[in-house]
Amino acid sequence: MGGTGAQWMLGVRAPDRSRAILVVTVDGELAVAVRDAVPRGMAVVRDARSDDAAEIADACLPWPWMVVGSAVTVTPALAIVLRERPVLTFWLGAAPDGLPGHARCFDRPAALLDSIQRACTANVGGMRLAPGSGVELGDGTLLRGATLESLVASYPGGFALPTRAFRSVSQALERHDAGWAAKRDGDARMTLVRSRAVAPR
Amino acid sequence: MRANPEVLILEDDAETLDELQTHFTRKRFHPLGARSASRALSLLEHNRYSSRPVLAIIDWDLGKAPDRSASSGDVLSRLARELRECPVIVYSQNIDAFNVRSQIQRSHPRALLHDKRDGDASLLERIDRMLDRTVGDLRIHDGTVVVHVPTLDQHHHREAIRLVVHHPDIVTFHSDTATKAVRRFGEWLQSHHSAVRLVSHGNRKYRLNVTVAEDATPDIES
Description:
The structure holds two protein chains of two kinds. Chain A is α/β, with parallel strands linked by helices.
C-alpha cells in the first residue's frame, strides 16, 4: 500500500500560500468529509493530527484561513496561531481549551460542513473569495490579503483581535472605493461594516 | 516553441502501464512510465531541471511493483513538495475507505481521486476530459497547443497548456523562463481579445479567469 514511511516529508507539510483549511482530528475522517464539501479550487484541505497540527499550520502561509477540529486537544503552539490571527475556527463537538472566543462549535457534522460551504461562497456586498487566494471586489478587482479573506468569510461575525491587525484591510478597501471597512462591532469584534451606501454596480 | 508535455504514470501492472503510455503517446504527450515508486522518483529527479510533467497518474496500490523500496505515498509527497502545479490523479480499488483517502491527502493535499473499480476506460475518459479541455474560447488540441477557437490561432508553449489544464486553479511557476512564457501567453490572450484573462496572484502564481476582468495587485498586507 502507498503510505509514506517518512512523516517529515509528507506533502501536507509543504509550505503553500494558497487558502488553507487545516482539519485536526484523530483519524482523518472529518478531513475527507470537509474536502468533499469545499467547492473546487476554493481552498486546500490539510489533514492534520494533534501532534503535527502546529507544524502544518506553520506551512499554511501566511496562516491557515480556517481551522476545523474534532475530539482533539489544541496544542499551545496551535492555540497561539488561533489567538493571534484572524483564523475561522470551527469545531465539531465540545470545545477544548485554547480555542478563541470567535470559535463556532457544532453538534452535527452536517451543520459544520454546511457552514464551511457558506464560508467558501460568502458574498459581502459583492466581495467574494477568489479561487485559491484573494478577494474579488464587485467591480472584478482582485485584492490579495489573508485578513480580508477571513473577514469576508466570517461576515457578519468577526474576530476579537487588535484594530491594528485590520488597518491595511480598511486602507485597501478605501483605496478601491469598496464602500466597506473593518470596524469593531457591538461584541467588540472586528468585522466588515458599510462605510457608505454604495450604488448597485 | 513546441515541446510535447510530459505525463508521469506510476502503474505496477505492465499491461495497464503499456495501455496508458500508448494512450498518451497517441495524444502527443510524452509519457514517463514507471512500474515502481522508486523508478518514478528517479524519473522525477532526472527530469527536474529539463521539464515538469503537466499531469501525473498514480496507482496507489503497488502490490505488483518489481521494487518496493519506495511507496506511492513517497511519490505523491515528492510531487506535492516539488511539483505542486502538476495535477495528480490517484486511483485505487479502496478509494472509498476514508483511511486510504486520508493517507493520500496527507501525502498530496491536492490529489484528485479515482475509483479503480470503474475500470481503465473510466480513468482514460477522465484524463481526456482534463487534457482536452475547453476554457472559455480556448481549447487544448493534441496536448501540445492551445487554440483560440474564434480565430483558430495557436499558442504552443507548455506553460499555457498547464494553465488551461489547471483552470480554475492557481498554478505556481518555478523559473523566470516559465514566468516569461506565461506573460507572453497573457499578452497573446489580450491581442486575440480572448474571453479568458491571465490573473496574477503574485509570487509567480497565475490562473486563468473566464468571466471577470481583474487587476493584479500586491498583497494588501505586504
